[in-house]
Specification:
Number of strands of chain A: 0
CATH topology of chain B: Neuraminidase
Structural class of chain A: mainly alpha
Largest sheet of chain A: none
Oligomer: heterodimer
Strand content of chain A: under 5%
Largest interface: A-B, 22 and 32 residues
Largest sheet of chain B: 4 strands, antiparallel
CATH superfamily of chain B: TolB, C-terminal domain
Helix content of chain A: over 70%
Number of helices of chain B: 1
Shape of chain B: globular
Strand content of chain B: over 45%
Distance between the termini of chain A: 37 Å
Order of helices and strands of chain B: HEEEEEEEEEEEEEEEEEEEEEEEEEE
Strand order of the largest sheet of chain B: 1-26-25-24
Number of helices of chain A: 4
Order of helices and strands of chain A: HHHH
CATH architecture of chain B: 6 Propeller
């Protein structure tokens, strides 16, 4: 009995977490882009490059 | 006074033609239904992996940029793959992240998210040249002869569309946002009518606009009551996190079709239909979420399904 309850609870937690993880796709990509040493080295151009990636991600990929 | 029968017949025919034309152009859409006529790509085949841009020519061939396959693909009217070009790279005709596509006459124009300039192919997908442009592009439309309209989000200064020729030389600019309203807030999609007027749907602002090529505002529409999108600070940058409008396209009567983003009741599925004068006529829903709306010269609508594995083509039925 407790096994079934525990399994259901774990399943619910996993299902709940899916939209949160999916919603972070663009944010994670942006963080990686901004933290990239090459993009940091080129300064403003690197920021623009990452910013356009963010806009494309929000339009093309992000599950609203 | 006697009127000759031939003249009378000609007069009546002229009246009929004029009146039927005015009825067609004046008729306002009350409802739009869509009927699927073609589906390209599925989970069971390798036609498309994640398409990003689409365009169709006057002969009904469909051209698709496939971001996950780093390629440009040509499909016939039945949806069969005719040809494929491109591969991963930064050489001539190669892609790193293909995004936008448009078609005019014998030429196809494609952009890459990570590289500047515009790649030009012919309709047989033979790479012809790269048009130089110094900025990464977020918008591309082929307009009139020897003219491309391009746009890039800016971080400082006004938001503008730049009109360039086939050599990349700037012909003119159209400013649509005088004052910057924050980082990336000038991100938008655009459509251009045969007169050269611009229809702009903002990604992060509740605003759809029609502007003359001079930049003069003709009308502005807010479908979400002017709601401001949420913003978040990420690595010291304040960025918009919600989307308003994802794409805009014109049908052959000049009606404006706008794909709603996150603020819509059905995000990335609701399509708002506005009259050429900016009045909201009706709304309909796509069967699946899309990032893009494309309407070809025969008034067929194209959108995405299965997260980009599938391209859908619909006949639009107006009531």
């Amino acid at each position: 009995m407790w096994g079934i309850v525990l399994t259901l609870a774990v399943m619910l937690c996993v299902l709940e977490a899916i939209p949160l993880q999916a919603g972070r796709i663009c944010e994670d990509a942006l963080m990686r882009c901004l933290d990239d040493p090459f993009n940091q080295a080129i300064g403003y151009i690197g920021t623009v490059y990452c910013g356009i990636g963010w806009a494309f991600c929000k339009k093309y990929i992000d599950p609203e | 006074m006697k009127i000759k029968p031939a003249i009378l017949t000609a007069l009546m025919a002229a009246i009929l033609v004029v009146s039927s034309h005015s009825v067609e152009s004046a008729a306002q859409i009350k409802k739009v239904a869509i009927e699927e006529v073609l589906s390209i790509g599925s989970l069971d085949d390798e036609a498309l992996f994640q398409w990003s841009g689409v365009a169709a020519d006057a002969d009904g061939f469909i051209y698709v940029l496939d971001a996950m396959d780093y390629s440009l693909k040509k499909f016939d009217q039945a949806g069969h793959l005719v040809k494929k070009a491109g591969r991963k790279g930064q050489g001539p005709g190669e892609f790193m992240a293909p995004r936008l596509l448009d078609c005019r006459g014998e030429s196809l124009y494609a952009t890459d998210q990570n590289t500047t300039g515009i790649l030009v192919f012919d309709r047989e997908l033979v790479f012809k040249k790269r048009i130089p442009y110094p900025l990464l592009l977020f918008n591309l439309r082929a307009v009139g002869e020897n003219c491309l309209a391009v746009g890039s989000p800016v971080f400082q200064g006004p938001g503008k569309v730049v009109l360039i020729d086939e050599e990349g030389k700037v012909k003119s600019e159209m400013v649509f946002l005088e004052k910057p309203e924050g980082m990336l807030m000038d991100s938008m999609s655009m459509a251009i009518d045969p007169k050269g007027d611009f229809y702009i749907a903002f990604l992060f602002l509740d605003r759809i606009e029609k502007r003359e090529k001079s930049g003069r505002l003709v009308w502005s529409q807010k479908l979400f009551g002017g709601k401001k999108v949420e913003k978040k600070t990420i690595s010291s940058y304040v960025l918009p996190t919600e989307t308003c409008y994802k794409d805009v396209a014109l049908d052959r009567n000049g009606n404006v079709f706008v794909l709603g983003g996150g603020l819509s009741r059905h995000p990335s599925r609701d399509v708002y239909v506005l009259s050429p004068a900016g009045e909201l006529l009706t709304t309909f829903m796509l069967p699946d979420t899309s990032h893009c709306l494309y309407i070809d010269s025969r008034n067929f609508l194209y959108s995405r399904a299965n997260d980009g594995i599938t391209l859908k083509k619909y006949r639009m039925i107006y009531h």
